[in-house]
User: What shape does this take?
Amino acid sequence: MSVIYVGKESYFHGKSLFQIARKYRNAGIGRMVMRKKWDRYEEPSYYRLTQVVPAMNVKGYHKGLAFGEKVFRGKNYGVCRIDSGYKFDWILVPKEQEQAIIDSVKSSYPTKETVVPYEVTVPPLMKMFISGELKAHGYRVSEDMFVTKRKIIKSKYSFAKLDKSAEDVPPAPEYKLMMKQVKRSIKKSDEKEIS
Assistant: This one.
């Protein structure tokens, strides 16, 4: 009788990080581990363990606290906490293969940064509604009012950067105060209609 698998194939073939680490001296500190899930990426991804504290009160030793130097898709993120150590898809990299993986990280291409424009116009439908409200309450509408500036929050996971050529553009005029006045006048007109 043959077995037929239905649905998505599981990638949980292995042990938890803590089950692997507890079998080695110093809880595997200095060794290289990787997840089976990361095989789908072309660039190498791994952790080099710096600190492992297994939870001794859990049956099976599959939980705990771990830290390691993270290299994900060829980019080094420094020492991070390993949050997915309890999952059963960790593999210990043999010492003979560690150097080959480190060399492949050096040769992997750097991640391309996405360049985004510094200023963006408001979507057309929103522009139509706002200009209609402003005109209805007697305000002058100009095209400068519908240009917003972008701000990118820098993090170690962000690969986006602003277009440097557009950063010298003067800031778009503030119309928040005008919109507050419009909202107040709308509320007053609604109150008059109710009474």
Notes: The longest strand covers residues 46-54. The two ends are 79 Å apart (CA to CA). The chain is about 25% helix and 25% strand.
